[in-house]
Write a structure and sequence with these properties.
The protein is α/β, with parallel strands linked by helices and 683 residues long. The chain contains 27 helices and 20 strands. Helix 16 packs across helix 18. It starts with 15 loop residues before the first helix and ends with a helix. The structure holds iron/sulfur cluster (SF4). The site of iron/sulfur cluster (SF4) has 13 residues, from helix 5, helix 7 and helix 10.
């Protein structure tokens, strides 16, 4: 098949051809086809891009990533194709702006800082162009602005010199518009042929803004790498696709780490508010009403101010409710809109959204960062109004004084997405059971073709254990025998594996319950203990120290399932040789969870409904955590499922087949066999 001419490796991994053929067929077909690929680590998933490129024809490719760290994998795949085949695909990426921006270190928030500087720079370009009476203007022909651009360097810049040099201004129908400068276009043509990492890009661009240069390159490159938000947020997708000359009908979409897309859609379509957010929106109204406003806008300001004051009261009133208590959207809307004459809730939200635009324009004219706090409140209220007649939308209490409103079923959004593009390839290492994921993503069976690849790493390199009787079921949490069973599993892993191990608990509370025991076992084995920090910025240092321990006596990482250290981190080589999931990581059984369960049970029946709503996310968290251990065919490791529910009906049948086949049931005492197994395999 055609992918062979694009394949950049000397040989194929087991089952890799099967995947590439399926991808090529799907892309060739187009017609809004969807292919879901469940390919465990080691299947060479990223090489699917060869088959996409081979079959795409004149269409363009969009790769949507969950995290910016994944961009390097695709860049190196394209580099390989360019080096080892006769093909020369071009790739551009619009992810990781802080890594690309040469002055990112000057901002507290690089996104907000950049947006503000761009507005100031555009205004400066326009002002100079008008002052010079020109119809076309570039900063490099103007020593006055060039000098001004260097002012405030490092602290209080009044414009961004890189952005200014990336743009030229011209007069069109009496209005000044900015477009890419010739220098930016030259740089774009260069970078698209070189496949540069963000730091190399920064060096190559030198005088232009690397992000703007990439945006120019993205308008003509074969492949554009975007983040989930760009693609899964419907409003943003329209804007980004138009900006990058992408026509949905002529776009092949690749969704990377696709098991996440459902949750990403839910989170994108959720609005969270609290007293502070409402207060900020009220301040925006105060500022706006100090200026001259026409009568209709003044009416909207007065109406919105009244609603926001009542919303503040409501939020305060709900402060004592438990997180994830479901709130009645009818009662909420009645309370908020009660005083409005000729009440029409939807129309009032539309008026607020109009007001958001007025505030945005006002902020721009005042050269302020155009983030509008009222936008979040209006979105929250839009979802509250929707929740009155739509069971897929909930309003609930969050943490502290927070309230949230959001959708619980991502399938209508994902269907609209895949129905709009030419075809979609969904890649993941944990889409098991794939039929259930199809139902969760699209709300129906048969919308996608599905491909499940077996685990291609040697089974002899891994020991898969599941507990016979230990459990974290809440009724057994304080049972002394159960606690000692769990402890024996923990001891077996920490003392039996002569390297780094990780224990993933179902919550921070449970981690604390077993922390002292873990520390005692670690101390006996001369291992250092690491605890997952709550702040993201502490993670890189913790990981680098944990990895260093692999060459000494080893480390013990205590983390939570579904947390920052259980997914997306590459524990390569011997940096992790054993992992245990302590407990079935089900979500807390809150009112929100009960509503989600009820909704899915009504739609898909009891068994499938509970699987989609409740069990599937837990299994995914567990599989992602265990998936950190074996990253290449020579890795050796122990994978432990420390909860007897993993081996019982209702769960076991949904585990990946290789886990089911290899799983050995053990009790706490039998975990002492781990040391012997490691010794044998190493010998
Ligand atoms: S326009 Fe470019 S260089 Fe300037 S602040 Fe933004 S990202 Fe940085």
């Amino acid at each position: 098949m055609a992918y062979e001419q694009w394949f950049a490796y000397p040989s194929y991994r087991p089952n890799q051809r099967v995947m590439l053929e399926a991808v090529e067929r799907c892309v060739r077909k187009g017609e809004h086809a969807v292919l879901m690929v469940d390919a465990p680590t080691g299947s060479g998933k990223t090489s699917a891009i060869s088959a996409v490129l081979a079959a795409k024809g004149a269409r363009r490719v969009v790769i949507a990533l969950r995290t910016t760290s994944q961009v390097e994998g695709y860049l190196s795949e394209i580099r390989r194709i360019r080096e080892h085949t006769k093909k020369r695909p071009e790739i551009a990426y619009l992810v990781g702006k802080p890594k690309m921006c040469p002055i990112a270190g000057e901002f507290e928030n690089p996104y907000a800082g950049c947006e503000l500087l761009k507005i100031l720079t555009k205004n400066a370009l326009e002002a100079r162009m008008r002052a010079l009476g020109r119809e076309r203007y570039t900063v490099e022909e103007d020593p006055v602005l060039t000098a001004l651009l260097e002012e405030g360097r490092g602290t209080h810049r009044r414009a961004c010199p890189y952005y200014a040099r990336s743009k030229s201004a011209l007069l069109r129908d009496g209005k000044v518009v900015v477009q890419p400068s010739e220098r930016a276009m030259r740089d774009a043509a260069r970078v698209v042929h070189s496949v540069l990492s963000p730091s190399e890009l920064k060096k190559t661009c030198e005088r232009t803004c690397p992000y703007e240069v990439m945006a120019v390159a993205a308008r003509f490159s074969d492949i554009v790498v975007l983040n989930y938000h760009h693609v899964l947020d419907e409003r943003m997708r329209d804007v980004v696709f138009r900006w990058l000359n992408l026509e949905p009908e002529n776009t092949v979409l690749v969704l990377d780490e696709a098991h996440n897309v459902g949750d990403a859609v839910r989170s994108i379509n959720t609005a969270r508010i609290g007293v502070r957010a409402v207060g900020r929106a009220l301040s925006e109204l105060d500022v706006l009403s100090k200026g001259e406003l026409d009568a209709a806008i003044m009416d909207d300001v007065l109406m919105t101010r009244g609603v926001l004051k009542r919303l503040t009261e409501y939020v305060e009133h709900m402060r004592e409710r438990k997180p994830d208590d479901v709130l009645d959207p009818h009662a909420l809307c009645d309370f908020l809109f009660a005083e409005v004459l000729e009440r029409d809730d939807e129309h009032m939200v539309v008026r607020m959204l109009d007001l958001v635009e007025v505030i945005r324009q006002h902020k721009r004219s005042m050269m302020e960062f155009p983030e509008v706090h009222l936008a979040r409140i209006a979105e929250f209220l839009r979802l509250c109004v929707r929740a009155k007649g739509d069971e897929t939308c909930l309003v609930a209490k969050g943490e502290g004084d927070e309230l949230w409103a959001g959708v619980i079923d991502p399938s209508p959004y994902l269907r609209r997405l895949v129905d709009s593009v030419s075809c979609t390839i969904m890649l993941s290492g944990t889409l098991s059971p794939i039929d259930a994921y199809e139902l969760y993503f699209f709300g129906e069976s048969g919308r996608a073709q599905k491909l499940v690849l077996p685990n291609s790493f040697p089974a002899s390199n891994r020991l898969v254990l599941a507990s016979k009787s230990a459990t974290t079921l809440s009724s057994m949490r304080n049972d002394p025998h159960n606690i000692s069973e769990i402890e024996e599993h923990i001891r077996g892993l920490i003392e039996g594996v002569d390297g780094n191990v990780a224990l993933y608990f179902t919550s921070y509370g449970m981690l604390e319950q077993y922390r002292a025991f873990c520390e005692r076992c670690a101390s006996k084995s001369h291992k250092r203990v690491f605890i997952e920090p709550k702040e993201t910025k502490a993670i890189p240092r913790l990981l680098s120290e944990f990895f260093e321990c692999a060459s000494g006596r080893g480390g013990v990482l205590l983390a939570v399932c579904g947390g920052k250290l259980s997914e997306g981190v590459d524990y390569a080589g011997r940096s992790l040789e054993g992992a245990a999931v302590i407990g079935l990581p089900l979500s807390a059984y809150t009112e929100v969870q009960r509503r989600i369960n009820r909704y899915y049970v009504r739609r898909h029946g009891r068994q499938m409904g509970m699987l989609l709503a409740y069990t599937l996310p837990a299994l995914n968290r567990a599989m992602q955590a265990l998936g950190r251990v074996i990253r290449s065919e020579n890795d050796i490791g122990v994978l432990m499922l420390c909860d007897s529910r993993f081996a019982k009906s209702g769960v076991v049948e949904y585990l990946p087949s290789w886990i089911r086949d290899e799983m050995r049931l053990v009790d706490g005492a039998e975990c002492s066999m781990i040391a012997g197994w490691i010794g044998e395999v190493r010998a």
